[in-house]
Amino acid sequence: MFTDIAIARRHAFSLSRSLMVVTFVIAIGQHYGVITAEDADGSVAIVTEFDPFA
Questions:
Q1: What is the mean pLDDT of the chain?
Q2: Residue 45: how many other CB atoms lie within 10 Å
Q3: How far is CA 38 from CA 3, 4, 7, 35, 41, in A?
Q4: In the 8-state DSSP scheme, what is residue 41?
Q5: Residue 42: pLDDT over 90
Q6: Most CB within 10 Å of its CB: which of 26, 32, 44, 51?
Q7: pLDDT (tens digit, 9 = 90+) per residue, 3-15?
Q8: What are the distances in angstroms from CA 23 to CA 37, 44, 51?
Q9: How many CB atoms lie within 10 A of CB 16?
């Protein structure tokens, strides 16, 4: 979990490029998390999406 959105976005971008998968930055209260598109279930608040193929 991250408390700074900029750090969460950097980690999501790096993870997306390393694994070549779509990643999301999600909001959980006042914290942010990074998940892959495979793990997203629609009930999370997506803040940013990183697609390495776009």
A1: 94
A2: 11
A3: 23, 24, 22, 8, 8
A4: -
A5: no
A6: 32
A7: 999 999 999 999 9
A8: 6, 13, 7
A9: 21
